Amino acid sequence: MSAPLFTIGYEQVSSSAVLDTLEGAGVGLLVDVRAVAASRRAGFSKNILAAGLREREIDYLHLRGLGTPAEGRQAARSGDYAGLRRIYDAHLATPAAQEQLDELASLVATGRRVCLLCFERHPEHCHRQMIAELICERVGVEVAHLAAPPV
User: Which InterPro entries match (predicted)?
Assistant: First the structure.
């Protein structure tokens, strides 16, 4: 049986809790699907996050082309999840997003334990759920949403 495609959000959690959760699930590659890989939350900006992952022997990849456009992030912040889906569906139709979806599908198809990372704690309020659904359909794996304990 193939490994599932994992997802995780870091809202309301510490970086050490996320790293512990990833390590506990046996994740080998964290794929950052944020448009902007910077965060006000300690430990979640790209370089610091990648360094923490390396210490746990977890690889890091930022697929910026799978990030949500600014208007999609605004829709999510305001609770307009239908708007987020509409905006993100249009974004996914772009050549850049399609190329990165193909790259992600190839990585998942190898059987490697891959996890998608974004901010929102609840996957149903995040574009990573949409990515996971597409990849799982393409590759034929299940999705497993991880949740680190809140701070």
Answer: DUF488, UCP024492
| Order of strands across the sheet that contains 29-32 | 59-62, 29-32, 114-118, 5-9, 143-145
Phi and psi at residue 60, in whole multiples of 5°?
Answer: -130, 140
**Would you say 69 and 91 are in contact if contact means Cβ atoms under 8 Å apart?**
yes
Look-up of token digits 């759920």: 129
Read off the amino acid at residue 16: S
**Does residue 50 belong to any structural domain of this protein?**
yes
Q: What is the pTM assigned to this prediction?
A: 0.96
Give the tens place of pLDDT for each residue, 91-136.
Answer: 999 999 999 999 999 999 999 999 999 999 999 999 999 999 999 9
pLDDT exceeds 90 at position 151: no
CA 64 to each of CA 56, 79, 97, 125: distance values in angstroms, whole numbers, following the listed order: 23, 23, 9, 19
The domain that holds 120 is classified in CATH as 3.90.190
